[in-house]
Amino acid sequence: MKIKACYKLRSVAGENMVVSVGNDPDAFKGVIMLNDTGAFLWKLLENGTEKDEMVKALIAEYDIDEETASKAADSFIEQVTTAKVCE
Fold first, then answer.
1. Which of 47, 45, 33, 53 is nearest to 77 (CA)?
2. How far apart are the C-alpha atoms of 39 and 9, rounded to whole Å?
3. What residues are paired with 15 via a beta bridge?
4. φ and ψ of 26, to 5 deg
5. Confidence (pLDDT) at 51
6. In the chain, which residues have pLDDT < 50?
7. What is residue 64's predicted lDDT score, i.e. its pLDDT?
8. What pTM value is reported for the model?
9. In this structure, are residues 69 and 59 in contact, taking their beta carbons and an 8 Å threshold?
10. What would the DSSP string read from start to end of 25-61?
11. How much is the pLDDT for 28?
12. So what's the pLDDT on residue 44?
């Protein structure tokens, strides 16, 4: 799974936001706000990271157990899939 190239993560006044750039007709029109964990996961997906790698990264970054990390990854994947920002 990978974030479509027409979406960019930006930090504005300390806030993480995703904006659509380019000419993708299916692109989300607006801004997606992310907390720090969401921005962390977004950056992983920009590089095409799969769920198992996301879980390992969450465990390492936040010192959480595998079940919690897996649920967080599942939730994030569901949200970006629903928003159609992934390919």
1. 45
2. 8
3. 12
4. -95, 5
5. 96
6. none
7. 97
8. 0.89
9. yes
10. TT---SEEEE-HHHHHHHHHHHTT--HHHHHHHHHHH
11. 67
12. 97
